[in-house]
Amino acid sequence: MTFANPEILYFLIIIPILIIWYIRKQKQRNVDIKVSNIEGFSLSNKSIKPRLIHILFVLRIIAFALIIVALARPQSKTSGKNVKTEGIDIIIAQDISTSMESKDFSPNRLEASKATAQKFIDNRPDDRIGIVVFAAQSFTQCPLTLDHFMLKELLKSVKTRIVDDGTAIGLGLSTAIARIKNSSAKSKVIILLTDGVNNNNEYLSPLDAAELAKELGIRVYTIGVGSEGEFKEPVATPFGTAYQTIRYEIDEQLLKEIAMMTNGKYYRAKSKEALDQIYADIDKLEKTIFEDSFSHTRELFFIFALVASILLFAEFLLKFFYFKTIP
Predict the structure, then answer these.
(1) Domain residue spans in the chain?
(2) 327 residues of the chain, pLDDT tens digit each
(3) Residues 6+ positions from 108 with CB-CB distance below 8 Å
């Protein structure tokens, strides 16, 4: 057991001082009287109350000590242990351009992709997984982690229109590479999901990013999400949300080149079943071992405070009911 505020424990020094004070006070209360005959005293009923009266002070002292300990915030810590888990490092690079709102998937492409990704995360408890999102810009939604509860909560919050619209595939891929390149895992994988054509080479072209992934030994699985053709896309109007028909195309050739350069695989995801096939392939990848140290802290102050409260309440009951005196 450790203490968050150990300096408060110095107040425990007061307790022996109080005990000495109480003993001296009791001695001063005892006086000698001279009587000619003690026969009357021997006939009186002897009560145990005078001896038990000291229990009030004992209860108060113990409660005082427990309060000091509670204020010092005792804690129970479990740390220094390692959890060995076998897995690989995976970054999911998710396209969040407005075209992901298309309704050819139910309820739309983005939500369907998120639902499938959540199922994937649940099926791989031993893998460190992270999330990168991209449109015209890219950022890390969640770094590599074994905390899949936090990962899924952050995945739920992924949505469109949080950055400028566009499809910067090269930027999304390079951001994912930056997040996974220093991994100690033998198998490093990026799953790149997009439904469009790269329209932003301002930072790094997709093929340049793929070349970088190849040099770093990162395997990239590319997924073309959705069906080509005309689909309804929501647009804001002065009268509310309306849907306009827009034609989408997926640059399958580019996605195939990225996968081929990095020893990955290209998939055309016209359904969730196609995404499931990706997960089956990833299961076949070589596994490595990670050791994650952890520390859990449990606050114990409330236990000491509760016991102190019970003791003080017991003292109150004894003092005003059992040891009650008439003036």
Answers:
(1) 2-27+49-78+297-322, 89-286
(2) 788 888 888 888 888 888 888 888 877 766 556 666 665 555 555 566 666 777 888 888 898 898 988 888 888 877 655 556 667 899 999 999 888 888 878 888 899 899 989 988 988 888 899 999 999 899 999 999 999 999 999 999 999 888 888 889 999 999 999 999 998 888 899 999 998 788 877 678 899 999 999 999 999 999 998 876 666 666 667 777 777 776 667 888 999 999 999 999 998 888 777 777 777 777 776 666 666 666 677 888 888 889 888 988 888 887 777 776 555
(3) 100, 101, 102
Residue 229 is which amino acid? G
Which CATH number is associated with domain 89-286?
3.40.50.410
Residues with Cβ < 8 Å from 294, sequence gap 6 or more? 78, 79, 81, 83
Task: Work out the angle between the directed axes of helices 252-261 and 206-215 (0-180°, nearest 10).
Answer: 20
